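Ticket #328: bound-state structure for magnesium ion.
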Amino acid sequence: MITLDDIRKPVMGRIEAFDRFVDSRFSADGELMGSMLKYALSSRGKGIRPLLVMLSASLNAPNAAATDSPRVNLAAMLVEMIHVASLIHDDVIDEADTRRGAPSVNAVWQSHKAVLLGDYILARNVGIGLESGQFDLVSHICGAMAALCEGEVLQDDCAARHTMTRKDYFDIIRRKTASLISVSVSAGAMAVNAGREAVMKMHSFGEAVGMAFQIQDDILDYSSVKTGKPRNNDLREGKITLPLLCVLERVDEERRRELVDRLSRCATDEREVDYLNGIVVNEGGLQKAARIMHDYLDKAVALLDGYPDSEYRKALCDLCAFIGERDR
Ligand code: FPP
Ligand code: MG
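RESOLUTION: The complex was predicted; output attached.
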């Protein structure tokens, strides 16, 4: 089994330097804001997005010295802090009490302060980006923020109406997750001044990785107790994600209406949650979703074909395998 530590190895020194870079840039005025910020930064998670920036920068750099550019750290910071802020806001929207096994920011300080902390992180992030003068990176990366919001609104609307088509589902995950991941990989190439074609190829690679990443997240919501979040949250929130969608697409209209009806009761009735989880597991919803996820990962790996063998190319291929295997 591939581990993230193995994948990080070729850029480990750079990741440590990046962590110091973030700590030195992100401080807050005021004791309470300082505590909240420290809390948010201390549980940043797997760091997949900055890792993608670093690996893409190394893969596309004309020489090793180019990857030491401060632009690489800046790009990694911009994507990671957008991600951090978006999860803080997401937990407010979802009324989630835990994130990565620890109380969410809203659980500790209430929702209104969590919203403000997320806003503060975004404001500081853009501010630091603009002060750096690296406007190409700032506009490329910060342009993705709108897509995240669009994805969330569409998801919310579908959950409220208990409807979901494949087009809706892929549209949602492309915006809410794949957009920031594709921007992370392409920004890595931009940060080392790679050509337009390489930047676009990295964007396509990141989009495929991002789609797979979110599909696996949606599978794990049904199947894993190791994510640090309660299982079956999507059902409780009335969300139809790919595993359930694959089941709904194959039943007749009457059964579909019954299952959607049960979904609408999941917020308040744990027996309906267990019932729908059982249906998705027993009727092959997880396997079907996994097959689609692997198609995206195959597409991503194929996009690396043109690159010569290197530890960075191997790490990106391994990251694709890791996403397909991960259980947390
Ligand atoms: C997690 O998905 C959430 C996202 C990938 C995006 C959240 C985006 C917003 C709340 C819009 C705000 C945008 C900005 C730029 C601050 P999930 O709920 O499927 O995953 P989870 O199970 O980890 O919560
Ligand atoms: Mg959520």
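RESOLUTION NOTES: The first helix runs from residue 4 to 8.
TICKET STATUS: resolved
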